[in-house]
Amino acid sequence: MSAIAVVSAGLGRPSSTRLLADRLAAAAADALRARGSAVTVETVELRDHAHAMVDAALTGFPSGAFRAAVETVTGADGIIAVTPVFNASYSGLFKTFFDVLERGALEGAPVLLGATGGTARHSLAVDYAMRPLMAYLRAAAVPTAVYAASEDWGSADGDLADRIARAGGELAAMVEGRPAAAREDGFENPVPFENLLAAGR
Q: What's the whole-number mean pLDDT along residues 49-54?
């Protein structure tokens, strides 16, 4: 069973960001099922946790429903992260979420990046803003990222559909190829303290 967590930083309802996130999730799930893997998909709408994220940034501790959302993302086998582009970069809501994660929480995690914007001129925000953020978090971003401008949702939707399918397939391949040990929580099977002491002698 593979678990995919979707992080959507859309501000409106409905939003093109959530629409892209859902389509990327469907493509990744289809690709995983084609490989014979059962899959679950859970979406975290960041706008629903905006106040809790600010609280977590101030206190250092996520709580309540937001804590559950964080655990959904950090415990997933693969992550899809989608943001609207404002001022040529990811949104503040998107950045705040990743700021409050514990250090190392996404290390090695396969991540598919997506972004939406009003014009194709902002498409490079994926490469010069989102990818460096994931690299800093030591997550493994898939090669294909998907940027959808307003015109991509029109009659020329075929190209967008192709990019979504390619990116979903790449995420599925990374999830399937990820060593099982990398998926385990380091606290599931801790080394007994006396063993650590013995090793230090």
A: 96
CATH 3.40.630.30 fits 2-199, yes or no: no
CA 197 – CA 201 distance, rounded (Å): 7
Domain segments of the chain as ranges: 2-199
pLDDT tens, residue by residue, 130-184:
999 999 999 999 999 999 998 887 754 568 999 999 999 999 999 998 755 444 4
pTM: 0.85
Sign of CA dihedral 102, 62, 73, 111: negative
In this predicted structure, what is the pLDDT of residue 183? 45
